[in-house]
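Example with several molecule types.
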Amino acid sequence: MSASVDHFSPDKNKLNKIAEDILKPVGFSKSFMLWMGFLTMVFLICGYAYGIQLEKGLIVTGMRDFVSWGMYIANFVFFVAVSLVGMLISAVLGLIGYKWIKPIARIAEIVAVGFAMVAGLVIVVDMGRPDRVHHVFLYGRVQSPILWDVTVITTYMTISILLYFLPLIPDLAIAKGRMNNAPKWLVNLYEILSLKWNHSSKQFKILMKSMRILLILVVPTAFGIHTVTSWLFAATSRSGWDSTIFGPYFLTGAFVAGTAAVVILMFFYRNSFKLEKYLTDDHFDKMGKLLVLTALVYLYFNINEYLVPALKMKRVDALHLHALFAGHHAFLFWATQLGGLIIPMILMMFKPFRKPGVLTFLAVCVLIGAWFKRYIIVIPTMEHPNLPIQGVPEAFMVYSPTVIEVAVTLMTFVMSLMIITILSKVFPIIPIWEMAEEASHEGDAEASKTESLPAE
Amino acid sequence: MKNAYILAILFAFAVLSVQAQKSNWEVPADKAERLSPATFTPENVKSGETIYNANCVSCHGNPGQKNFVPLNPEPGDPADAKFSMNLDGELLYKIQEGRGAMPSFKATLSTSQVWDVIAFIRTFHKDYAQEVAAEVIRSGLSGGKVAIQLVYNEAKHTIDALVTEVKPEEVKAISGADVKLFAKRYFGEAAIDEVKATNNDGKVSFSAPSDLPGDTAGNIELILKLVDEEAFGEVAQSAVLPVGKPTITHSLIEKRAMWGTVQKAPLWILFMYSGGVLAAWSVIFFIFFQLRQIYMAGKKDEETGVVREEI
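Resulting structure tokens for the full complex:
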């Protein structure tokens, strides 16, 4: 987001060309219908599984007395984590003044909106009595991280929607005159949402100011959302969670997962929406580097998180660490650490591995690894309470998710994908006005220099 | 509980191992010959089982299963010869007195309770046939019943007792009888002062402890027992007297605390939370207001007919 525009006068021809490229994929094509149909089908099947859970209760899951947080909570942490990338790209990189993020920023916000909106539902899915969800507010205690979590997720979601919507307003104004063969309701929608935008410098000024405020506000909110999520664990004294670095550990892990998700979406848009000109090899290269950076920081926290307790091997920790390093969860642990973090990270340090296709493959590995990493953080600790488990059925001691649990988890992913799909087909995926502005200044060294100065 | 017991025992055992080495447990002849005053009934066995499970299982395990705790000397399984070889009086003596890691149950269980446990243990001994004491000697009494009165003398801070024998026609002071005073605690009874003998008027006075915690009013249940059970039978009288220090506990949720309800939340956290929410959401609402401003600006341009260059 360039924060210095108060006057919009792009090169007409370039704007036309850009608008044409970016608006082409907008609208409900056949393949969109097919894809949404497929998603709806999966959603219904998984929704049926959730129906069974609603009727019979959480007994249909693998969760029992000791492991009372299972796949759902791991999945919740994953959703919150992925959504944080909106803040990383738009706010952290944007406020620093990096210009290459311009075509990517909206994709990052779509990811943020899609995942933050569903994150709240993932928690509801974990409730035995979802009909009492309002009790969280009625009887919530301000002392409890759970209430902070609910609050901060709602706040972050709202800010993310605004961060998505605000830069979209000028685009909607540009687009509404050019959508000749779009359905009428879409044109009407654009008309309403563009808020009578006429590119006046007054409107630009308000927009820029609002964006800047939001970009600043989203930083503490995003830090808050994932730090508080980590406190749900770290505020208890159980081995594996009883850690002072859980906040930054979760936060950096979130950036890894989110960056990977954005890379995957970029690749998809680039190919399906024919946007090679806007999402260039160079963008993938830069995102690859960003992924290496976030992965390095995350690796550093991982080393601290596992090596320090491993050096001390306190009695309860020893049980837990043994299960991770060499026991029941060893395969998953090493697969996520090596295959989902270290190996992709090392590969991405080399330029050929930051080419779009290869990078996307590595990002998929990282994203899958990130999901299982949350599983590794939540479940093994639950299996090792401070007092030994005695005299209970085998199923109570070791957690394994049931088919219903997997299906319901899948449902949450489908919901996110639906939101992302709809947003990317109803609205332009790349900021037209910013690209046009950029293009207009190309070759005009003088102007681009003043442009790149930080906001006044 | 079991674990704590075992730890305590292991420690005690380390200290006492040398003296506990001697495995012959001699019981004085007169004690060994003591017999139960009554035939064991199924009720005795039943109550004995309950007492056994509460007090003995942690070391001796379940009779017949040989799952006693491995100590040296072994506690042994009550179903085994180690136990069955004992006379009734020997069992009574060993349980009441204890040795090494075997605790003394004198203060915890009454004699008749110990007889109940013995009745229970005997059900595991095949060749056992009970012998009952011919008659209980009640030389201390002349046909009447023992009556005990307990009062608290606040001025002297003593607990005074009057021990009498009540017969239909007269009430006679019991003099020269040893008595012992206990205070009822959560676990067992705590002896207060020392064993004292009644005077010629049947009176005896114990100095009351000054720091014993009582209930909220300082009440404590006291029990006076006659020591010589042979002479008087099992006599005990309890009374609730205000001899203790009142215990006033404060509810942990009385004041504002992290673990309280939201109405009792600490103020700082209330301020932090609502301050944070207020700050973030007022900014968000400000942004909504800005969006309105954008709309109003566009509308105004439209109305005043300002035509912008078509983009």
